[in-house]
Amino acid sequence: MNDMNIATNLLNLEKGVCDLYMHGAVESATDKVRNAFSSGLNENLGMQKCIYETMSSLGMYQMQSVPQQKIDSVKQKFSN
After folding, report:
1. How many domains, the chain?
2. Can you give the pTM of this predicted structure?
3. What is the mean pLDDT of residues 36-55?
4. Is the distance from CB of 52 to CB of 11 less than 8 angstroms?
5. How far apart are alpha carbons 59 and 55 in whole angstroms?
């Protein structure tokens, strides 16, 4: 397993953990439980950001520029 696979697996794991914390917060019956899930979510969002930034700085996670015309086209499609 190479560094790219390990980093991708870590990033996907963090995304999954964030999803679980978010659903826990949304479904919480009390403020105490909601706060616990929200705190966990914020902590894991920070970890996810750190992993993403590391991958990006190493060229492992490339973002593509999208022409404004394509953005406008998609916005138009979903605004109808």
Report:
1. 1
2. 0.75
3. 96
4. yes
5. 6
